[in-house]
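Fold sample X.
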Amino acid sequence: MSAVDPLSDVLRSVRLRGAVFFHVSCRDDWAALAAPARELGPAVMPGAEHVIEYHLVAKGAGWVAVDGEPPLRLEAGDIVMLPHGDSHVLSSAPGLAPIVDDGAWLLGMRDSPRPIPVTYGGGMFRPGERLPGNEASAVLLCGFIACDLKPFNPLIDALPRLLRLPAPSVGPWVAPVLEQAAAEWHAPRAGGAALLQRVSEMVFVDATRRYLESLPEPSRGWLGALRDRQLGRAIALMHGDPARPWTLEELGRRAGLSRSALHQRFVAFMGMPPMQYLAGWRMQCGARLLRESDANVADVALQVGYESEAAFSRAFKRATGLPPAAWRRGQAGGAPG
């Protein structure tokens, strides 16, 4: 069996959809308040279960802050992400009071060509306007990535509230791709919207991978478990063959741990036992099959390790709130692309 990459597995299954939404130009003292994703999401990515916001500092510098965390300095070329969708303030200096608005303008401009220009500075806030490049002391590209949380997404909880990638650690391919995205804004071309969407997705994947590589050992959580040799092996086994009737004994033996040691170690890292993780991943695999294939529910149940359609349907409803057939109809009728 070829090597399985659980991180790529999850990233594929939770349906990343991206968009570069705002081109923000700033001058003088400036501070912008970004609403929490649960409020902003319906305007920028309707129908998304979860929305992650990110910012690229294309020019100048600034600060980002969320409640309860120290502010972070951002330099040109840095990328910062808000994986949990926290409200946050971007500013030219820590502690500046942001301009607060009701967001009505955003709904009115939702269908405008993207990225939408916005200007801040000296107490000024002008949606739909962009400063000339030589007048802007700071320029940010602000994007969003939508993903599914249900039935099972172990990644989001494993990421920090603020995920900063300093410019030197950003992948060497990112800068030219983002420069191309900026060029698309200045001179729109056919296919530009698709390019901007893919840029957001690629940036998120790269940021997640680099965060995983930067984790100290040992680190708890799902990403920490992936880096642990024995737990990572157990997770890869479950991802590689979710329909197999795995037992703790077999998983432990193949991962190099006893049955009890695997259980204890898994719970210590992830807060759940291995069989609960397997059940969640089977639900996610089933959701993907329901969405992407024409297989009937009974066949989907067999493909993800359930001996009966009824048992799969009960588990799926517990995970999503809907029976498989109703969930599939909802995906076909209104899921975002």
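Fold sample Y, listed below.
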Amino acid sequence: MARKNFSEKREAIYSLIRNTKTHPSAEWVYQQLKDKYPNISLGTVYRNMAMFVEQGLIVSIGTVNGRERFDADTSLHAHFICDECEAVIDLDYLPYDRELDDSVALNTGHSVKNHSVFFHGKCRKCVEKSFI
């Protein structure tokens, strides 16, 4: 029985991450699931998310205001981070630039696997709020 519940929780954690565009933190995932799974712990969420990262099912996109954020879209793409509301937004229209990888490798002698691009500022919603 415990194994079934563990699998259910794991699937619930993964499903929640996969079905949101919010780029959630472990704390956010925990808050979303604790009513349905009252015996779930924040540690369980962290361990499962770390396992998902290790398996390549999700990626860590770094920390925003001290909280590590995750993305179930594992394709190489850029993000915009709002410094005001902490939203993390996919920039799917911005193509991945493999020439940048090649340029860094050529100029440094490093073996470049890939790179991440993050833009920071105010998202559209926060910009609009500041004019109201």
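Sample Y note: The chain has a mean pLDDT of 93.
Also: The domain at 1-74 is CATH 1.10.10.10 (Arc Repressor Mutant, subunit A).
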